């Protein structure tokens, strides 16, 4: 078992990574000071695939367990769905020390975390992420949210979990395209913080995608370590944490212009990373060699690298509406070299256009 610590003083917690961990969750949870009554928030698909395994593990360890299902899909990450969960928690008489478990992908993690942050002014919660993207990204760091009709993740709170349990066995049922979305985020960590890890990914990308256990565990662990390091330095994204948005500036614009239907989040981030390195190259910040290494790794992973038919002015308009805009300047994360990035708000519109057109 690999363990990564997220060092946040009295809000510190551990990320446990292993195969078969679902069966161990109950016993491990006993070591975390919480109530005996637990609510697992999940969706029908995850519940069908893995609900019994988790339930047996928790009841076997003496917990009193209830499952609350919400429908599957980003369109249900809403305040209305959260309100339905509050109703169930009140019915079940969940108390302030009673923990919630977020059991699913990033959608479940975000909404369950938001409910945990707000129900009774905050109850403990545990993340058991079941997508690769959630395992390397959304389950760590305490960003919780629901969407508003006028924008994604507009309503939320920073609220850290008490623990994260990552069972790589759950990835065996995850569709290939969803695996790739997690791989895009894993590549991102190499680019922003660790050239050695990037090089490791260059040599092992196919085996990672095919879920080779050793490669997968190492890659998840390294990704979690980098995210934990950044979050511990800047929990509320007032500085360093912004680098985790590498590739997300243009990625989000692409997602919103295509109504979140044409690209999955990780695919849009992959395209966004290619444009970010292109911008870095065009601004004279990174070498051509490093630019090519990033593009090649993204392509070798089978991720999309270009958008062909989007209107450049629409992308620029959409960029201006994004949360990453500060004092009316669009913030980009650019690459100096693989393993090192910087936050820039001074990119001329002409350069943005040039990069998007070519
Ligand atoms: N809080 C953060 O820091 C953060 C970071 C990145 C993304 N996010 C959020 O995460 C969400 C995206 O998360 P996601 O990519 O995990 O998508 P998701 O939660 O929608 O899951 C994708 C699909 O995979 C299914 N699934 C999940 N686990 C499975 C498994 N083991 N086997 C088979 N199917 C499985 C889900 O039911 C769903 O249909 C977005 O809402 C995004 O805003 C949050």
Q: What is the fold's blueprint, element by element?
A:
Blueprint: E1 2-6, E2 13-18, H1 25-30, E3 37-42, H2 44-60, E4 64-69, H3 79-91, E5 100-104, H4 106-118, E6 125-129, H5 132-138, E7 143-148, E8 151-158, E9 163-167, H6 176-193, H7 195-209, H8 213-233, H9 248-257, H10 265-282, H11 288-300, H12 312-321, E10 325-326, E11 329-330, E12 332-337, E13 340-344, H13 349-357
Bound molecules: nicotinamide-adenine-dinucleotide.
Describe this structure in words.
The chain is of the alpha/beta class and 358 residues long. It has helices at residues 25-30, 44-60, 79-91, 106-118, 132-138, 176-193, 195-209, 213-233, 248-257, 265-282, 288-300, 312-321, 349-357; strands spanning 2-6, 13-18, 37-42, 64-69, 100-104, 125-129, 143-148, 151-158, 163-167, 325-326, 329-330, 332-337, 340-344. It has a 7-stranded mixed β-sheet with strand order 1-2-9-6-5-3-4, sandwiched between helices. A two-stranded antiparallel sheet has the order 7-8. Strands 10-11 form a two-stranded antiparallel sheet. The chain is globular, with a radius of gyration of 20 Å. The protein binds nicotinamide-adenine-dinucleotide. Nicotinamide-adenine-dinucleotide (NAD) binds next to helix 2, helix 4, helix 5, strand 8 and helix 6. Nicotinamide-adenine-dinucleotide binds at residues 43, 45-46, 49, 72, 74, 77, 104-108, 110, 130-131, 133-134, 137-138, 141, 143, 152-153, 170, 173-174, 178, 181, 265.
């Amino acid at each position: 078992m690999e363990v990564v610590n997220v060092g946040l003083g009295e809000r510190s917690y551990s990320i446990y990574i292993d195969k078969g961990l679902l069966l161990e969750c109950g016993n491990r949870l006993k070591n975390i000071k919480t109530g005996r009554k637990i609510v697992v928030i999940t969706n029908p698909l995850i519940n069908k695939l893995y609900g019994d395994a988790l339930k047996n593990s928790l009841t076997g360890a003496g917990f009193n367990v209830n499952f609350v299902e919400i429908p599957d899909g980003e369109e249900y990450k809403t305040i209305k769905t959260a309100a339905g969960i509050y109703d169930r928690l009140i019915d079940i008489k969940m108390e302030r020390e009673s923990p919630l478990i977020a059991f699913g992908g990033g959608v479940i993690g975000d909404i369950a975390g938001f409910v945990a942050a707000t129900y009774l002014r905050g109850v403990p919660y545990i993340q058991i992420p079941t997508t690769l993207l959630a395992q390397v990204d959304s389950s760590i760091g305490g960003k919780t949210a629901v969407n508003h009709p006028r924008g994604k993740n507009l309503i939320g709170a920073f609220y850290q979990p008490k623990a994260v349990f990552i069972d790589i066995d759950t990835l065996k049922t995850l569709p290939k395209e969803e695996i790739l979305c997690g791989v895009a985020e894993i590549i991102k960590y190499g680019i922003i913080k660790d050239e050695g890890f990037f090089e490791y990914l260059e040599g092992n990308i196919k085996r990672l995608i095919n879920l080779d256990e050793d490669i997968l565990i190492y890659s998840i662990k390294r990704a979690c370590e980098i995210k934990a390091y950044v979050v511990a330095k800047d929990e509320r994204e007032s500085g360093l944490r912004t680098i985790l948005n590498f590739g997300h500036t243009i990625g989000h614009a692409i997602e919103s212009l295509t109504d979140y239907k044409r690209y999955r989040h990780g695919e849009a981030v992959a395209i966004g990373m290619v444009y970010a390195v292109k911008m870095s190259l065009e601004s004279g910040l990174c070498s051509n060699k490093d630019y090519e290494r990033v593009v090649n790794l993204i392509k070798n992973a089978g991720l999309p690298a270009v958008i062909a038919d989007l209107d450049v002015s629409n992308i620029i308009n959409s960029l201006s509406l994004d949360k990453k805009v500060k004092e009316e300047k669009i913030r980009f994360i650019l690459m100096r070299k693989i393993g090192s990035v910087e936050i820039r708000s001074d990119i001329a519109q002409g350069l943005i256009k040039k990069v998007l057109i070519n």
